[in-house]
Amino acid sequence: MLRGIDHLVVAVPDLDTAIRNYTELGFTVVPGGRHPVGTHNALISFADGSYVELIAFYEPSPGHRWWAPLQKGGGLVDFCMQTDDLRRDTAAFRKAGVAIDDPKPLSRVRPDGYKLSWVLSIPRDAQRGVAPFLIQDQTPREERVPRQMTHRNQVRGIGAVTVAVSDVAPVRQWYAGVLGAGGHDVSRDDLTAAGARFTIGPHVLDFVAPRGAGSPLTGWLKARGPSPYAATLLTVSGKPGPLDHAKTLGARFSFA
Question: 100-125 burial by CB neighbour count: b if 16+ within 10 A, else e?
């Protein structure tokens, strides 16, 4: 069963710059460590159990699934879902029409030397970033997710993720097949777009397609293809609005 968003992935050109920028935006940023696939990361953990992963490459890795999006500007490039039954949910996405690989192990070594390990199921090719990748921990999840969950900007969690798609119908079929519910129609006048909304655990996902050439999603889809477009972060500060796009290194985040 899907339990909600595990984390959002923000691809950045330089990790030290990202840590500095997000700290200036009021986040508590914790160095994460290195993966044996050419990437290293830092994490922003929230009280709702989710987090944002800032990820960069410490060596070129053209075959990595986030390398190409980074060359196109990076920012919010993917999202991961928590599951309490990885094999069952992998099979459910596959049955619903998603080309998703069987679970494979991955690891990361934290700066303190602790080796984390987990198992991932990753969608293939164009479905990545629209269908989530799925995670199940082998080491305790509380070791993977930083315990520092308070932030100067008072963000407490992820609210909603907006994913730009060219055709809503097949995506709706995927999630309806996995969740057993068809979601709700949603009209996003702010984006001149419409689509389907699903709520998974505490999080909302909007899969929307542009209603015309005037939608900002039209150019986005042409340049980036179907992919995550923006996300809202819930804060108790009472100061809603977009974050500085330059500071977020391309990620369209806003406070709500």
Answer: beebeeeebebeeeeebebbbbbbee
The Cα 230–Cα 148 span in angstroms is 24
Residue 174 token pair: 């995927």
Structure tokens at 255: 């406070």
H/E element holding 108? strand 104-109
Correct CATH for 2-144 of 3.40.630.40, 1.25.40.10, 3.40.50.2300, 3.10.180.10: 3.10.180.10
H helices within the chain, ranges in order?
A: 15-24, 67-71, 86-96, 141-144, 168-179, 216-224
Q: Any idea which architecture 155-255 has in CATH?
A: Roll (3.10)
Domain regions of the chain by residue span? 2-144, 155-255
Written as tens digits, the pLDDT of the chain (256 aa) is 999 999 999 999 999 999 999 999 999 999 999 999 999 999 999 999 999 999 999 999 999 999 999 999 999 999 999 999 999 999 999 999 999 999 999 999 999 999 999 999 999 988 999 999 999 999 999 999 999 999 999 999 999 999 999 999 999 999 999 999 989 999 999 999 999 999 999 999 999 999 988 999 999 999 999 999 999 999 997 778 999 999 999 999 999 9
Say if pTM beats, i.e. exceeds, 0.90.
yes
* Backbone φ/ψ region at 205: left (φ over 0), alpha (ψ -120 to 50), beta: beta
Output the six-digit token pair for 246.
């330059």
Triad 9, 15, 16: Cα angle to 5°: 145
